[in-house]
Write a structure and sequence with these properties.
The chain is mainly alpha-helical. Helix content is 80%, strand content 0%. It is elongated and about 55 Å long.
Length: 127
């Protein structure tokens, strides 16, 4: 394994961060365009959660890429990132329908991305 990727621990961390970011991306794509979601657009909490999730997702993607570039080979970065994008819809479809749509889904994504950012800072001190 060391011939493929010498830093297996960093590879596992990056896989976790990429998986959370990909799953969060799929949840957030269901929110846009806002004209199709009057249940979220009419509630101030929904708009705040959408904005916060988008900002946290951008920070997680940027931090994960910075962590991956600093600690992994580029081939590992591309392969694991691609696998995360490929299998994230499966993780998304495992969730119950009430968790995917609406305020509950946005709150779960907010907590997941926030926890991942905390772990990323703890593990990689990216920010």
């Amino acid at each position: 394994m060391t011939m493929i990727e010498p830093n297996v621990a960093a590879l596992l961390w990056f896989a976790l961060f990429a998986g959370v970011a990909s799953t969060g991306f799929y949840v957030l794509t269901g929110v846009f365009p806002l004209e199709t979601r009057p249940d979220l657009r009419s509630r101030p909490l929904g708009l705040v959660l959408i904005a916060a999730n988008v900002l946290l997702l951008l920070a997680l993607v940027g931090g994960s890429l910075a962590y991956g570039v600093a600690n992994l080979r580029w081939t590992s970065l591309v392969i694991v990132g691609g696998l995360a994008l490929l299998f994230a819809p499966g993780l998304f479809n495992v969730w119950p329908q009430r968790w995917r749509d609406g305020i509950a889904g946005l709150a779960i994504v907010f907590a997941g991305i926030g926890a991942s950012l905390g772990l990323l800072q703890h593990v990689g001190t990216v920010f």
